[in-house]
Amino acid sequence: MVKIFCLPLVGVVRFVLNLTRVNLMSAQVHLPSSLKAGDAIGVCAPSGAFEPALLEAGIAQLRKMGFFVHLPPGLNEVSGYLAGNDRHRAALVNDLFKSTEIKAVFCARGGFGALRVLPFLDFTLLKNSPKLLIGFSDITAILSQGIEQCTSPMIHGPVITSLAGASVRTLESLFQIMTEPFSQIVIRGRQTLSRGSASGILKGGNLATLVSMVGTPFQPDFEGSILFLEDTAEPAYKIDRMLTQLRLSGLLTGVKGVVLGSFDRCGDIADIHGIVAEVFNNYPMPILAGVDAGHGEPNLCIPLGSKAILDADGQTLGVRIGDN
User: Fold this and answer.
1) What is the pTM of this model?
2) Which end of the chain is less packed: N or C, by CB atoms within 10 Å?
């Protein structure tokens, strides 16, 4: 089934034509199962401490969708501004993936701290027990490393505490990705910054988090990717500095295309777009801005680690779990 968000007929035609040109990579992919009513979603907290009231409000949304929500022992631990110490937070993730009863793993919130748990995550376990892992913002650190080590898609989408105020489009997108993960999804952007089309594995997430991984053993690899970027509360000069760091580190070499999500509370969006266009000036590629994903609302789900088709002229991003 094809799900289309605000996509005109010409965009559908262009997407289908491009889809026929995609050559799938030969690497084996570990795919998660789709969810059905009554399935259990496990909650982890790999980053910052969360507000219990917001968590409960978000859980209520998942229950309305028909899912059972499992809260593991120790979920409410607090260590300073983090949801417990590093090993504890990592253990929650590992244990949920180990469980045969849990069908998807949902992060309670982002914020800060996910980078610290990477050395303690059992990525072999995550690879051999594929489940939908859903989160964004600081959770980008886990999503990014997950798609590198697990060869399975990771879902850039809302955290549970953000579901309390989520829009209908966010909730519909979330329900679709959990129950119909193998359907084709076409998401529309609003502005073409550089024309053209390209295909590649969809990678990226929160810009500040990705930059924090540079120079670590978990440094991302964007070679051959469609790079998705979003951020919040970062002024233009910081966006400039972070993108420049990625460029000078060589990580932008080989990127096939760029998709910009929301840049919430980052100042004049025209300034952000101008910085992105300048940074990628020496890397001719399609750039599409204004995709509804990230810290703004709606926050549509995007399956990172899947093959994506970017059509900047038609202002569409097409992606489906299992295409890689």
Assistant:
1) 0.90
2) N
